Amino acid sequence: MMMDLTKYLRKDKMPLIWCPGCGNGIILKAMLGAVDRIGLDQNKVTMVSGIGCSSRATGYVDFNTLHTTHGRALAFATGIKLANPELTVVVVTGDGDATAIGGNHFIHAARRNIDITVVLYNNWIYGMTGGQCSPTTPHGMRATTAKFGNPEGSFDISKLAIAAGASFVARGTVTNPVQMSRYIEQGILKKGFSLIEAFTPCPTSFGRHNKMGKPLDNLAWIKESVVGRKKAETMTEEELKGKLITGVLADVEKPEYCELYDRLIERSRAERGEPVLPERETISARAARAEGEEL
Ligand SMILES: Cc1ncc(C[n+]2csc(CCOP(=O)(O)OP(=O)(O)O)c2C)c(N)n1
Ligand code: SF4
Q1: The model's pTM
Q2: Does residue 16's CB lie within 6 angstroms of at least one atom of ligand 2?
């Protein structure tokens, strides 16, 4: 059965600013599908973004949304989640936003293992500002700041998140949106820091600088470049050169930050002889109380 996802959209904000052939809309649909399948209350979802083409997603969705400063989405999201752990907090970010100016927030949010889901649109470039290199631009590929090819190496964002302490990490592509939507669903359901790295074409900047042809050719390039985790296990290092491995790359159980923080407060109150705090009041209870309803 087709899902009606339009209830999650702010129709007055249409049309979208994304270029024809951009993959951002596919990822947005995958996210909305995940929220719908889980059956989350729209008013209990908070989506936070930084700055960049991908980060415009928060303007289009009818959740609680926050479009913050460049690279800082995770800092804002951390505050929201700690104040209201009942909320489902999803961060939408780009490769530049998350791993250049926001690099420290990214590794430390993963290290804390706070229960936030990050959907990271990786198009290997700064799309919004015209195509400068980002920390994921592959070595040798071109950008406005690398006319003769990027001399630098690039981050493997998923590996970075795993090394920093994330509890769930998966990587998908817009060429397989159903799978990507499942990964986002798993990430939201996982308690702890989840990263879904989503490969997506930017034909306007990355594709143009690298002479990748039409938007469909850009998709074909992604399709040829990726290989599933299971198949990758059977391939040699030589065969894997230049390939991007997709799949669930980490799924581990570990303590979550908001819960640890609550326990820390309890311990410190007990040590000072202060009474144990009552259970956190849920947002709906608080809202009902504010409206003068009896609880
Ligand atoms: C403090 C600050 N520095 C730089 C910028 C300019 N800026 C806006 S978007 C962007 C890069 C976005 O790239 P990415 O995160 O890869 O997102 P994309 O546009 O590709 O989706 C930059 C450098 C800014 N807005 N604020
Ligand atoms: S510049 Fe690239 S990332 Fe930005 S909307 Fe256009 S195609 Fe998408």
Answers
A1: 0.95
A2: no
